[in-house]
Amino acid sequence: MQDAQQTATETPSRLEPRKLLAMGLAVGVSALALAAVLGSGTSDAGVGRNDAESLAALTPPAFDEPATITPRGYLYGGNEYLPDPGRKRPAKPEAESTAIEPNGPRTHDLSVQVLPGDTLGQILDRNDVTRQDAQDAIATLKSVFDPRRLTPGQTVVLNLTEDDGGITLNRLQIEAEPGRRSIASRQDASKFSASEEHDPISTETMAYAGRIDSSLFAAGERAGVSPTVLAQLIQLYSYDVDFQRDIQKGDSFEVLVDRKTLPDGTRVGDGDIDYAALTLSGKTYRLYRYEDASGFADYYNEKGESVRKALLKTPIDGARITSGFGMRNHPVLGYSKMHKGIDFAAPIGTPVYAAGDGVIEKAGPWSSYGNYMRIRHTSTYSTAFGHLSGYAKGIHPGVRVRQGQVVAYSGNTGRTTGPHLHYEVLISGDQVNPLNIKMPSGRALAGNDLRKFETQRKDMDRTYASLEGKTTSASAETKPATLR
Q1: Model-level pTM greater than 0.70?
Q2: In CATH, what number is assigned to the domain containing residue 158?
């Protein structure tokens, strides 16, 4: 019994060395395996790194952050910061560079493109110009350029001097329009002066011609006529031509106009039309520009009669007639009713012109007309517009307007089924068909003015004839003829 108890108490002490040996072997094998994996040697897969390399691989690349982030400043995109175009990004010092920067201030030009929403103040502030310099330069510049007319895409050139004391603005230049620059230049420590620079502008006489397939405007654009000249051409002929009904396929036009260009060939504008001809269904309507001794310029037909009539035949550009004068089935009411005007289909906001000189009698909401306007031209003639979306600035009852002046905008107010302009002509208060009225001609030249006009008219005919055959055709790709 004593021997059994002694054996039981001795067994654990005899087994402990074997357990310790087994545990030691297991730890050793594990250590060798771990060393094989993490060792500096290359594995069969070709992968082997030291600890520093492994740590670097797990660390994301650092961003090169700008020194300052402005409200309009840097945009985060991908793995880089995109600097505001108006701010120069500070150059990074190069450790290898041994170049020594010269001492003293540095003066340079900086070109900045205007971005949407930019103001001059923001541009100057963004480029570290002091607030005082910015205020003084902008206040001076206002005498030659309205800062509110700053538009995206324009170029602002700043001449800056940088030194340890900060940045000094020497000159602010804005490309106000092609060929014209507005400038504010520093005169002394606290004063700027304003000036302008103009590139020389040359004038060329351009001859255009075209065959009309769909509209005068489309044919003119194909021939290279600018939208400004086409708008003037349409307005001049709108006294006699209904551009919805009178224009037919196969009709044609001719135009002689001065074009203004910069030395590099950039087109900066067009002068007035000198001569035009519109051939409709075989009949040609010619007009010539003539300036009398008093300096008044107008357009006249071959007989020296002004092409301007008492009223425009079409008070809106490019619109088609959708409803004429007379009895019709009313599109809203559903029964026959007299339509005492004509309707022109036009998008909301299309400019509406005063049909003649006169005084605004009414401008405001009126019954089924919606927004309404009536203009008294003489004691006999008045015109009216209905369904307007609004009125031009400064238009109200009692205001005097000129023929061709924008007085309102077409709309869809009142009792309508879609956007259009309702136009009426009233004689002694009664509505009449605007298309059937024979308007008297305006001024007719006489005496010395008529003789001078005849001479000038013949010169214009010869000029156009000398360029005929070289003009741009609406269906050709050749350039317009020019006469310097």
Answers
A1: no
A2: 3.10.450.350
